[in-house]
Design a protein that fits this description.
About 50% of the residues lie in helices and about 15% in strands. The chain is α/β, with parallel strands linked by helices. The protein has three domains: about 120 residues, Phosphohistidine domain (Glucose Oxidase, domain 1), CATH 3.50.30.10; about 100 residues, Orthogonal Bundle (Enzyme I, Chain A, domain 2), CATH 1.10.274.10; about 300 residues, Alpha-Beta Barrel (TIM Barrel). The strands form two sheets. Strands 1-8-7-3-4-5-6-2 form an eight-stranded mixed sheet. Helix 8 links the parallel strand 5 and strand 6. The two termini are about 30 Å apart.
């Protein structure tokens, strides 16, 4: 049995025969045009427009996050700067095919050099270029294969336009040799609940027709599996399916200890699905969607409309809203357009909001008005608001005081940097609650950029150093009688969820598709079990051994 390692997306396991994505179109050669620059420019404009409209149409069909991704791709295709680059190349007398390929490649290289979030978009630009070139040639763009049976799709990377419309009755799992946990492939796979592994470099060697097991929970592709391995994987898949279809119940441990299971949402559009999947409320509502698509900050009225929609969908339930978390991989020109050598350690989160307090005040105004409007028409939601990237007690006091000024009853902080975790007992004297963002906490603890594939192996919340900081925060909450939630991706790992509760977490928030797995895992352990399993993980020296120790301790029930 051989294993290919990558980054697991989702928590499932699947098995099947491999079908490889077709390779890219051959790049055009630098040949002179036979029809002249003006005619070539017209061809290029028509092809780009046709591809943009196709991407938008696919987005309308797919809906949700896929629609946003594909609309962003369409805008990328019609970027005026990119059109100017194509026109410049056409002026040399070359073909539209070559001009498009060369101009798009130049932009792609620029994005790759920037790295981080923008670096992840390079693959999206490659896909647009391939589609435009295919349109110019009058051939089909590379796409998902159709082998005539359900299959495990293997690709170098998968374009958003293809991921968005995957036939989930045919695609058993997805494996890519490139991409990372923040790539659009990963984002859309997570939203659709596809068993997926990205960044599995050795997957390039997988052949059409061979049988593999894709274990997203473990982050491995098992090649040439034995009959026993196949049977075991099928049993796991069946158990997961049964858990997902079981009657919805509140999150709780085996001894009845309540552990509310909440949803991470990026827009109000996901509220109905989250409720249907058993979310008991919202543990993280990201407000960035209102800001990232605009050159100017949204008005109070625009924000209020979105917040009202969210709060109305969760009447009588807790809704935790994070104030705008911009900077680093989410730059906003109207918030902070200054160049920073290391933006992840720069003016981001609450720091950026304090420097532009009017934006924060407008957001708190909109939240307070939305809360009042929903309460006036029926049962209110339980609105909690938290500040991102808090590092000091003084920042905590600043945010809580400002929130109180606008009538926000429950104001808290995100614990994403080690300083906040180490001072949790003092921070929670002023804050009403804390919510641990495990993605950033892991990044800052391990000094490993969460968007950089070369250090992805360090980005593991199982590391004992990260777990110690989580326990410090949990202890701080217990000392002050304040709740401590988890809203990072770590909460979606069924076993790690048990460990987090053992470390003092009082609620868990995750992608809605992970709720069933975590609910089932919690039911099999008592609070004493959770604390014992957590201690076993804390005693380890590294992430892998912490996970193994927790698994061994969990089996001793």
């Amino acid at each position: 049995m051989n294993q290919i390692h990558g980054v697991g997306i989702g928590l499932g396991v699947a098995q099947g025969r491999v079908a490889r994505m077709s390779g890219p179109l051959a790049l055009p050669t630098e040949e002179p045009s036979a029809i002249g620059a003006e005619a070539e420019a017209a061809r290029a404009r028509e092809a780009v427009a046709a591809v943009a409209r196709e991407l938008e149409a696919r987005g309308q069909v797919a809906g949700g996050a896929a629609r946003d991704v594909l609309e962003a791709q369409a805008m990328m295709a019609e970027d005026p700067a990119l059109e100017a680059e194509v026109t410049t190349r056409l002026s040399t007398g070359r073909t539209a095919e070559w001009a498009v390929a060369d101009a798009f490649a130049s932009f792609r290289d620029q994005l790759t050099a920037v790295g981080g979030y923008l670096g992840e978009r390079a693959a999206d630009l490659d896909d647009v270029a391939q589609r435009v070139i295919a349109h110019l040639r009058g051939v089909a763009a590379p796409g998902v294969p159709d082998p005539g049976h359900p299959f495990v799709l293997v690709a170098t990377d998968l374009a958003p336009a293809d991921t968005a419309l995957l036939d989930l009755d045919q695609v058993l799992a997805l494996v890519t040799s490139e991409g990372g946990p923040t790539s659009h492939t990963a984002i859309l796979a997570r939203e659709k609940g596809i068993v997926a592994i990205v960044g599995a470099a050795d997957a390039a060697g997988l052949a059409d027709g061979e049988t593999v097991i894709v274990d997203a929970a473990a982050g491995v592709v098992i090649t040439d599996p034995s009959a026993e391995e196949l049977t075991r994987a099928q049993h796991r898949a069946d158990a997961r399916a049964a858990a997902a279809s079981a009657p919805l119940t509140p999150g709780a441990l085996a001894d009845g200890t309540a552990v509310p299971l909440l949803a991470n949402l990026g827009s109000p559009d996901g509220a109905a699905e989250a409720v249907a999947l058993g979310a008991e409320g919202v543990g993280l509502f990201r407000t960035e969607f209102l800001f990232l698509s605009s050159q100017n900050a949204p008005t109070v009225a625009q924000q209020r409309e979105a917040y009202e929609k969210l709060l109305a969908a969760f009447r009588g339930r807790k809704v935790v809203v994070r104030a705008l978390d911009a900077g680093a991989d989410k730059p906003l020109a109207f918030l902070n357009d200054a160049h920073e050598e290391n933006p992840a350690l720069g003016l981001r989160g609450l720091r950026a909001l304090r420097a532009n307090e009017d934006i924060l005040r407008e957001q708190l105004t909109a939240l307070a008005e939305a809360d009042a409007a929903v309460a006036a028409t029926g049962e209110a939601a339980d609105l909690w608001v938290m500040a991102p990237m808090v590092a000091t007690v003084s920042e905590t006091r600043y945010f809580v005081a400002l929130a109180r000024e606008y009538g926000i009853r429950t104001a808290g902080v995100m614990v994403e940097v080690p300083a906040a975790a180490l001072l949790a007992d003092r921070i929670l004297r002023d804050a009403d609650f804390a919510s641990i963002g495990t993605n950033d906490l892991t990044q800052y603890t391990m000094a490993a950029d969460r968007l950089l594939g070369s250090v992805a192996s360090f980005q593991d919340p199982w590391h004992p150093a990260v777990l110690r900081l989580i326990r410090a925060t949990g202890d701080g909450g217990a000392a002050g009688g304040k709740p401590v939630g988890i809203c990072g991706e770590a909460a979606a790992d069924p076993l790690l969820a048990v460990v987090l509760v053992g470390l003092g977490a009082t609620s868990l928030s995750m992608a809605p598709t992970a709720l069933a797995d975590v609910r089932q895992s919690l039911k099999t352990h008592s609070l004493d079990d959770a604390r014992r399993i957590a201690e076993a993980a804390l005693a380890a020296d590294d992430a892998a051994s912490a996970r193994a120790a927790a698994q061994a301790a969990a089996s001793l029930r």
